[in-house]
């Protein structure tokens, strides 16, 4: 081989997954139009096919070697695997053959006959997947080969030699529920023939590379699992010996590294951003097998800052030492599903900030640039240009960071409350038991008080009003008047329904993080930086680039107005510091704990402003507290400590009679109950209905001793449950929780629901609570 050929073969470039929502959220619009009956199924297919091909074309223009196909989805890629393997719960009456679009969406969203499948967060991200329901005796069959179809389509339509992507059997079963834990290995083994068939069909088609995602390999892997993995991957290698399997891990470093890297696959993908320390330590300790490709995930797939390409190139050179000549793949750290599509549209941002941003498309450019940089002499001319380009960009983003951090001095930043916040109060002035009595006297609520989580429907009308205001067609007075009308209407509705603790409805808020970010300093907002959260729901995380400081009261006006309309208590509604942090893109050069304390201090100013305005029930939502938990148990304590301290920093200074509520959704609480209890909130409301009551058990075992509202119905489905169903939920909970600490509420905010269904569901809920009261 000549010198130049050899060097040309030095590196491959690849992507692991691309956002499916489209640069203008075309995907969301198509799905929602279909659900609303505005477009028919052929039109849905047509629109999604156009989008899918456009996305692939965009990746093709970067000339990456390994472009993923089959990562696109009509809702969620885990649900796709379930549909593909016939893992359809009986209640959906699926009778064989490929799963229809209507059954697929019924599993995702529920319908009149059947409740939706459970949905939960994908590892430590804010992406939610549909949890597969696998029973001990579930029979698996390959009903359709989705990666194969995606590969064919890309080849036919674009001449693209795609890399089909599928979630691997080990992770798929680990992230499923419904089977007995001791049957795990047996179930995975039963899935092997189905995966084998899928892969051998890909091989027969002439596919070269297949990406098998096994993120569960970054979680604890038992020794039985190690043996299982060896069997499974030996069988898959045997079924499709010609295929190059890239076993892809992400979000953390690989556990059982020697076992995983010895599996009979062609390549191993490692996250060198979020798993940087652990993976690098493993590479140093154990080396890397010389017969395998090393997928080096060096571009951050979870954050939006431009990479310092000179630094990244250095890291790559370091990592390349471990891989055999010509066996390095430059990749993002994970699928780009978790970042927005393109920063190119962000013309309204300060150019300094915009220059520092890299969304999916820009990250692909970075990977291509790194590929050229590292491929040596073969592409001399390209390389020179790439170096110049990379240098320009690095300088631009370094400059940006410098300018931005100087633009507002970080005077209040400190390592922990023990530092600058040392004199701030982290403990309430009375214990929960003392507060409880005082609060009972003050509020005299009935047993099993009823309330909601905060938001009421953000109807088209509400959104239109805000758009008019933002465009300047309405002045602040007109908009405020409109919001007041909404508040008034819903206070009346809540009184008529008979709820005990009311809310103002959050009509003035677009989003629970954006709303606060816009009023605090240190935040910037993109126009189109959307990321998929669950189903068609997308979020637009703000960018925290500077000091976070309180300017003026943010929620007092609306909340205090609502309180003037009723003699029932109106609960103030704030977003907690840890959630604001976890649902924002945060600078990677400042510790997250510092940013969290800063936000907490600002939220405390708001808590105090509400209290001064006579709002003495205040809910500080922390739905994202659990999701920020590191994947590795060894890192939990540190996170939980600053997360809990942040919440307390935000809430501890109120009077003992002031009732602090918090709310969390979508998580497993078992392992963090102690931390939740340490928040010292007087009442917590949590999601339970969509995990079908399992949470009740975890609170029973852990004897949580503060006020608690377990969501008695699932607000994520348009289905209105009957009274018996809700009563059943309440009574099941009362078997394990003391009635005098129990609250009755829906499992999350109601902003995505329609007015009629909300009124129906809440009326049934209040009725169920009344019946339950009579029975205790
Ligand atoms: N108060 C918020 C609402 O009701 C809580 C939302 C959430 O938990 N995600 O919308
Ligand atoms: Zn919620």
From TrEMBL:
Its cofactor is Zn(2+). 5-methyltetrahydropteroyltri-L-glutamate binds at residues 25-28, 121, 126, 537-538, 583, 627. Its EC number is 2.1.1.14. L-methionine binds at residues 453-455, 506, 621. Pathway: Amino-acid biosynthesis; L-methionine biosynthesis via de novo pathway; L-methionine from L-homocysteine (MetE route): step 1/1. Zn(2+) binds at residues 663, 665, 687, 748. Residues 14-322 form the Cobalamin-independent methionine synthase MetE N-terminal domain. GO terms for molecular function: 5-methyltetrahydropteroyltriglutamate-homocysteine S-methyltransferase activity; zinc ion binding. Binds 1 zinc ion per subunit. Binds 2 Zn(2+) ions per subunit. Belongs to the vitamin-B12 independent methionine synthase family. Catalyzes the transfer of a methyl group from 5-methyltetrahydrofolate to homocysteine resulting in methionine formation. This is 5-methyltetrahydropteroyltriglutamate--homocysteine methyltransferase. It comes from Paenibacillus xylanivorans.
